[in-house]
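quick one, 277 residues, struct below
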Amino acid sequence: MATNTETPLLLFTTLRYDPLLLPGFNSAIDSSPFAPLYMLPYHRDRILRAATHFNWPVVVSLLSGDSGLETLSSFIFSSLSEEQRAHPNRIRVTVSEQGELGITISPVPQVPSTFNFFPSSLPEPGTDIPSISLIRTSTPFEVLVDTQKSKKSAYTHFKTIKRQIYDEARKRHGIALTDRKEVLIVNEQGEVMEGSIATPYFWRDGRWVTPPVKEGEGETEGDWGSGGNEGTTRRWALERGIAVEQVVLANSLVDGEECWLSNGGRGFYFGKIKLRS
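---
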């Protein structure tokens, strides 16, 4: 008799633990109990939205409200050793339909500045002197454009372990996790969806824009904007007017174009578009 060997669906989120964010650092959203965990409330919220969509009542109950946030933070803190608490770490938290939490912890480099976590603005392209609220890295990330189109769905809108689209795009461009490279995912309409591990921001009409994401109830392509994930740093930037939503066509990108990227493990960082000849 045939057996179902499909891996059970897990939700996940990736965030940063950093001693630089301990109490005393003036973060824009985190209260001091969660401050070392970069944007933890936003990470909890993204899991809850996914759990609600996939109809996982156990997870919704587990992580809702102040008690749910405390449950998540306590789980992460209890998983960190004293040695791990002394330096920055990448934290990957998974959640099963039954409410089982999993965690993977790995060390990461320091960011150029604490301002890269919570910028008040992003410098305009061509700015020689970085904004006082954000420091560029000396070597920008090389931002490639995927050569194949991808279908948007609930699995691109919500963060789950079903990441074949992203993994294959990185493989096509030979990108390892530690490489200073990113690849932009492009939907079937030719719109930039997002990066494989980051939210992209592009300079259009005198402002920074990021591909639109809609709150959808179904799984049809019309429900998901350009199709990307509603990232934590993306949400933070939009709420503060650092960027706005706008469709960005892949064929509008120019070789050498300056852009910005952000994610929950690194904060905000600088990139340049690299088009294949």
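The longest strand covers residues 141-150.
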